[in-house]
Design a protein that fits this description.
By secondary structure, this protein is of the alpha+beta class. The protein contains two helices and nine strands; from the N terminus they run αββαβββββββ. The chain has a three-stranded antiparallel beta sheet with strand order 3-4-7, covered by helices on one side. Strands 1-2 form a two-stranded antiparallel ribbon. The N and C termini lie far apart (about 50 Å).
Length: about 160
Amino acid sequence: MKLVPRGDTTVVDAYLSPILRRYVDQVARLMPGVPLFFMQSSGGLTRAHHFQGKDAILSGPAGGIVGMVRTAQAAGHAKLIGFDMGGTSTDVSHFAGEYERAFDTEVGGVRVRAPMMSIHSIAAGGGSIIRFDGARLRVGLNPREQVPDPRAIGAKAR
Protein backbone atom coordinates (compact mmCIF):
# COMPACT_ATOMS: atom_id res chain seq x y z
CA MET A 1 0.00 0.00 0.00
CA LYS A 2 3.07 2.23 0.34
CA LEU A 3 1.91 4.20 3.36
CA VAL A 4 5.20 6.01 3.99
CA PRO A 5 5.42 7.63 0.53
CA ARG A 6 1.73 8.57 0.80
CA GLY A 7 2.44 10.14 4.18
CA ASP A 8 5.43 12.02 2.76
CA THR A 9 3.23 13.27 -0.08
CA THR A 10 0.59 14.46 2.39
CA VAL A 11 3.21 16.42 4.34
CA VAL A 12 4.65 17.98 1.15
CA ASP A 13 1.15 18.91 -0.02
CA ALA A 14 0.20 20.37 3.38
CA TYR A 15 3.33 22.54 3.29
CA LEU A 16 3.14 23.71 -0.33
CA SER A 17 -0.61 24.05 -0.96
CA PRO A 18 -1.28 27.06 1.35
CA ILE A 19 1.63 28.97 -0.23
CA LEU A 20 0.49 28.05 -3.71
CA ARG A 21 -3.13 28.90 -2.90
CA ARG A 22 -2.17 32.45 -1.83
CA TYR A 23 -0.28 32.94 -5.09
CA VAL A 24 -3.05 31.48 -7.27
CA ASP A 25 -5.69 33.59 -5.49
CA GLN A 26 -3.57 36.71 -6.01
CA VAL A 27 -3.25 36.01 -9.74
CA ALA A 28 -7.00 35.32 -9.96
CA ARG A 29 -7.80 38.67 -8.28
CA LEU A 30 -5.64 40.47 -10.84
CA MET A 31 -7.45 38.75 -13.72
CA PRO A 32 -11.17 38.74 -12.85
CA GLY A 33 -13.36 36.77 -15.23
CA VAL A 34 -10.41 35.07 -16.93
CA PRO A 35 -10.42 31.26 -16.72
CA LEU A 36 -7.07 30.32 -15.20
CA PHE A 37 -5.37 27.00 -15.81
CA PHE A 38 -2.06 25.86 -14.34
CA MET A 39 0.44 23.30 -15.59
CA GLN A 40 0.84 20.28 -13.34
CA SER A 41 3.89 18.06 -12.86
CA SER A 42 2.07 15.42 -14.92
CA GLY A 43 2.08 17.70 -17.99
CA GLY A 44 -1.66 18.33 -17.84
CA LEU A 45 -3.55 21.52 -17.10
CA THR A 46 -5.91 22.04 -14.20
CA ARG A 47 -8.24 24.85 -13.19
CA ALA A 48 -6.82 27.24 -10.62
CA HIS A 49 -9.07 26.09 -7.79
CA HIS A 50 -7.91 22.46 -8.24
CA PHE A 51 -4.16 23.23 -8.34
CA GLN A 52 -2.36 21.59 -5.38
CA GLY A 53 1.19 21.76 -4.06
CA LYS A 54 1.96 18.08 -4.71
CA ASP A 55 1.01 18.59 -8.37
CA ALA A 56 3.14 21.72 -8.78
CA ILE A 57 6.56 20.37 -7.77
CA LEU A 58 7.86 19.80 -11.33
CA SER A 59 5.22 21.81 -13.18
CA GLY A 60 7.76 24.17 -14.77
CA PRO A 61 9.95 21.45 -16.26
CA ALA A 62 6.80 19.51 -17.27
CA GLY A 63 5.61 22.54 -19.20
CA GLY A 64 9.02 22.67 -20.86
CA ILE A 65 8.63 19.07 -22.01
CA VAL A 66 5.16 19.70 -23.43
CA GLY A 67 6.46 22.78 -25.27
CA MET A 68 9.50 20.88 -26.55
CA VAL A 69 7.34 18.05 -27.89
CA ARG A 70 4.79 20.30 -29.58
CA THR A 71 7.51 22.41 -31.20
CA ALA A 72 9.53 19.39 -32.36
CA GLN A 73 6.46 17.61 -33.74
CA ALA A 74 5.54 20.72 -35.74
CA ALA A 75 9.04 20.54 -37.24
CA GLY A 76 8.64 16.83 -38.07
CA HIS A 77 10.68 15.30 -35.23
CA ALA A 78 9.30 12.33 -33.27
CA LYS A 79 12.15 11.27 -30.96
CA LEU A 80 13.60 13.82 -28.58
CA ILE A 81 15.98 14.34 -25.70
CA GLY A 82 15.17 17.43 -23.67
CA PHE A 83 17.93 19.42 -21.96
CA ASP A 84 16.70 22.37 -19.89
CA MET A 85 19.50 24.19 -18.06
CA GLY A 86 18.37 26.82 -15.60
CA GLY A 87 20.31 28.82 -13.06
CA THR A 88 20.44 26.14 -10.38
CA SER A 89 19.61 22.83 -12.05
CA THR A 90 19.51 20.99 -15.33
CA ASP A 91 16.48 18.89 -16.26
CA VAL A 92 16.79 16.07 -18.78
CA SER A 93 13.86 14.27 -20.40
CA HIS A 94 13.10 11.84 -23.20
CA PHE A 95 10.25 11.55 -25.69
CA ALA A 96 9.78 8.72 -28.20
CA GLY A 97 6.17 9.08 -29.26
CA GLU A 98 4.52 9.34 -25.85
CA TYR A 99 5.13 11.23 -22.63
CA GLU A 100 7.00 9.25 -20.00
CA ARG A 101 5.46 9.52 -16.54
CA ALA A 102 6.15 8.19 -13.08
CA PHE A 103 3.84 7.87 -10.11
CA ASP A 104 6.39 7.22 -7.35
CA THR A 105 9.12 9.83 -7.52
CA GLU A 106 11.82 11.24 -5.28
CA VAL A 107 12.25 15.00 -5.56
CA GLY A 108 14.88 16.74 -3.47
CA GLY A 109 15.21 13.66 -1.28
CA VAL A 110 11.46 13.47 -0.56
CA ARG A 111 9.25 10.64 -1.84
CA VAL A 112 6.16 11.85 -3.66
CA ARG A 113 3.27 9.70 -4.89
CA ALA A 114 1.68 11.80 -7.59
CA PRO A 115 1.73 11.55 -11.38
CA MET A 116 4.73 13.42 -12.80
CA MET A 117 6.59 13.60 -16.06
CA SER A 118 9.75 11.50 -15.96
CA ILE A 119 12.33 14.24 -15.46
CA HIS A 120 15.88 13.72 -14.29
CA SER A 121 17.19 16.79 -12.46
CA ILE A 122 20.75 17.43 -11.45
CA ALA A 123 21.87 20.25 -9.21
CA ALA A 124 24.24 21.76 -11.71
CA GLY A 125 22.71 24.51 -13.76
CA GLY A 126 24.11 27.55 -15.49
CA GLY A 127 24.70 29.21 -12.11
CA SER A 128 26.85 26.35 -10.87
CA ILE A 129 30.59 26.49 -10.59
CA ILE A 130 33.25 23.83 -10.15
CA ARG A 131 35.61 24.14 -7.18
CA PHE A 132 38.15 22.07 -5.27
CA ASP A 133 37.40 21.75 -1.55
CA GLY A 134 40.83 20.37 -0.64
CA ALA A 135 39.81 16.75 -1.10
CA ARG A 136 37.67 16.57 -4.22
CA LEU A 137 36.04 18.53 -7.02
CA ARG A 138 32.54 19.80 -6.32
CA VAL A 139 29.97 21.24 -8.72
CA GLY A 140 26.99 23.31 -7.71
CA LEU A 141 25.86 26.57 -6.22
CA ASN A 142 28.06 28.78 -4.10
CA PRO A 143 27.81 26.90 -0.78
CA ARG A 144 27.96 30.06 1.36
CA GLU A 145 25.12 31.85 -0.38
CA GLN A 146 23.03 29.13 -2.08
CA VAL A 147 22.61 31.40 -5.09
CA PRO A 148 24.19 31.09 -8.52
CA ASP A 149 27.87 31.95 -8.32
CA PRO A 150 28.49 35.36 -9.95
CA ARG A 151 31.50 33.95 -11.81
CA ALA A 152 29.19 31.51 -13.60
CA ILE A 153 27.24 34.41 -15.12
CA GLY A 154 30.24 36.59 -15.98
CA ALA A 155 30.11 38.94 -12.98
CA LYS A 156 32.82 39.56 -10.40
CA ALA A 157 32.65 37.40 -7.29
CA ARG A 158 31.92 39.33 -4.10
